[in-house]
């Protein structure tokens, strides 16, 4: 077995070892998922399903969870409204009797699904990237014991961006003509929270927010807001809307008459769809993620395995999120002596305790739940220890036509390239 194959199989090997040392059970375990299989965010939702299914296939090959076969039940949350997500959660609990919901993200639900899940007492792991999760969990940790957010809250994107910009400026390659940041904000709460945090933290690093405008979601016509931004001529344009197709249109329209501004888009350019749509205009764009696959042995091995299964056009980064969640849950449940069905709060508390107790090394870094929030926290924005926190990754698009258009430029020790000045600078 190659070192890459060995690294890719660590989760399966761990689970197989646990299974071998415990009394085997029989039967089926249902794992639910509610993701966008249709609608504007299906580009991620399909990969969230793929990542879950790939993990379940491997887990079953390793003996399931203490001998029990795992199967998925996936429902379409479409536009991710509170009604769609809550309805899906209720169906998974009441009709399907799932032992856990292992999810991607539903950014529009605003924790509307939490109470039904808490009443059932099952485990729910998601990537909603919402500070609202912190607030709900802290309001009653006993009630929401089984609800976990497997990535840091969106507010840390905003706190981290001025830090990253300051780091780029200190390298001397980028010598901004001023200290202005223009903020373009999508109308969803996710985007608004990030923009507010950028504004709150900018001055600490010598920046000022000189322009702000909220745009409707979705949108593809950026001419009016870009004219205002060009008149402001900022050092940085930060757009916290995150749909990749919409952002690609924004970049194409910006490139028709660019200013000497760094351009940062929230999350969307992480996906290859952005570079495919924006073409050469994408070169030089900055983006960030806390669930991006690292360019290390484990990350590269996962990409290779994921593309071999789903094809080179697949998006491995969102697939890695649900893949890792499922493995972490399976190991935690096996160590607890099994899963708990709806209503079995006692057994699910044992599983939840294990999820908090045991760290899982995922393709995107450390998956560890801070007990204050039942959520991951970011490195280095909140924790300076990368063994305890998930890295907040800054990328730059370096070759829009490449199979992997982006390179990781921050933070150390994970970065694989250095920042370069975008080609539109005069």
From TrEMBL:
GO terms for biological process: amino acid transport. The keyword Cell division does not apply. Pfam families: Peripla_BP_6. Keywords: Amino-acid transport, Signal, Transport. Residues 28-372 form the Leucine-binding protein domain. InterPro entries: BCAA_transport, Leu-bd, Leu_Ile_Val-bd, Peripla_BP_I. Belongs to the leucine-binding protein family. This is Leucine-binding protein domain-containing protein.
